[in-house]
Amino acid sequence: MAAEVIGCEVAAINEAIIGNSNEEAAAATENEANKSQQQFLERLYAFLEQEPPLNPLLASYFAKAFNVLVSRKAAQNLYSHQLACLQVLEFLKKKNLVEDILRHMTTSAVSDFLLGLITCVDGADIKKDLLDWLDEAQLVQSIVKLLKPTSNRDRHDNASRLLIEMLRVSRDAQHLPPGERCEDAILATIEHPDTVKLLLEVIFEDEEESGSKNESSLVNGIAILLAILEWRGPSHYMQQQQEMAAAMFGGGLNTADEAAVSPEEEAKQQKLFEATIESILPRIQDFADLLLKPPPKPAIKTTAGLLDPPLGATRLSKCINTTVIYNELLNNTQFSDVAKLVNSLLATQNIEVNKKLAETKTLDILLVRHQNAS
């Protein structure tokens, strides 16, 4: 009920929570006004300062209520919205936001809260301030480190989903009209070769007890790598928005041209993409080894007999979708994760990648596995 009341877009309620009331500020001293402006935000944010685990339902209400505060309302002018965002941002800077988010990463609604905070803030300058602050707090690096084998599967899944969504949202934002874009420090950090190296280092760590790789860490890490290697053009959603705008304005507003990437930016992206490939090259042998020695899984008793070892998600990810092998391996439900990564690497048409795949005999291993399966 409280979340619904906060989300009903009543200006007086939002102003009371954020402290965006000129009458209140004029009637109080500066210190009293600051204290009054923070008391409701303090109560709301206190939910995130609790010890884990959080109640998932309450966490979803918290995310909804907090994101409403930085969302632009239908009857709200830009100045009022940006002022509200600025006040919320200044409040959050006094908190250990990144630490609180990481502590509750097993609760998916906390990830939604952070994504909402990034996407709902309007105005290039304020959004840049927010992204710069999160980047200085090493948000991306901290999320990557959550993929260590010592974390549980829920933490791995939510960390991977959050990074991939942040990457998607940030890339889409780069195809907005120039006046609405901002320099995205979070996107630069996710795509940076150092982040790729850190990710590979984390997912290839051995578990202390078993001495083998962690399947959940590998699967989610590979999912992030695939997202980073994806084509850096506007998403299907962005293309739909551009086409809709062009149709509504009868061709008078060419949003596609406004959002087009300049040759300089395209060259920069190509250089960054090549640096990412170079970061992956030294680890191709490790991916090939995964095909021969996937993380062990305990035997599973089924109505058809004992599966020992059972099929794991790691081997289920390694296929080459441009060949018949890909279809056959998918039909046999094997190798899909690593094979998708191999396919993405082959699609780069990078000669060094092809040489490394040949040296490590990765394709030969896939062929042998396919023959054994058939």
Gross morphology is: globular
SSE pattern, N- to C-terminal: HHHHHHHHHHHHHHHHHHEEHHHH
Radius of gyration: 24 Å
**N- and C-termini, Cα separation:** 57 Å
Unreliable residue stretches: 21-30, 251-259, 318-334
How many runs of DSSP E, i.e. beta strands? Answer: 2
Strand order of the largest sheet: 1-2
Q: Mean of residue pLDDT? A: 78
Percentage of residues in helical conformation: 55-70%
Provide the β-strand percentage band: under 5%
Structural class: mainly alpha
| Major beta sheet summary | 2 strands, antiparallel
Figure out the total of helices: 22
What would you say this structure looks like, in words?
- The protein has 374 residues and is an all-alpha fold.
- Among the domains are: 1-97, no CATH class; 289-298 and 308-373, no CATH class.
- The protein contains 22 helices and 2 strands.
- The protein has helices spanning 2-6, 11-18, 22-27, 30-45, 56-69, 78-92, 97-103, 108-120, 124-136, 139-145, 153-173, 185-191, 193-203, 215-229, 236-248, 255-258, 263-280, 284-292, 324-331, 336-347, 351-359, 362-373, and strands at 300-302, 305-307.
- It has a two-stranded antiparallel ribbon with strand order 1-2.
- Strand 1 (300-302) and strand 2 form a beta hairpin.
- Helix 11 packs across helix 12 and helix 13 runs parallel beside helix 17.
- The longest helix is centred in the middle third of the chain and has 21 residues, at 153-173.
- It is globular, with a radius of gyration of 24 Å.
- The N and C termini lie far apart (57 Å).
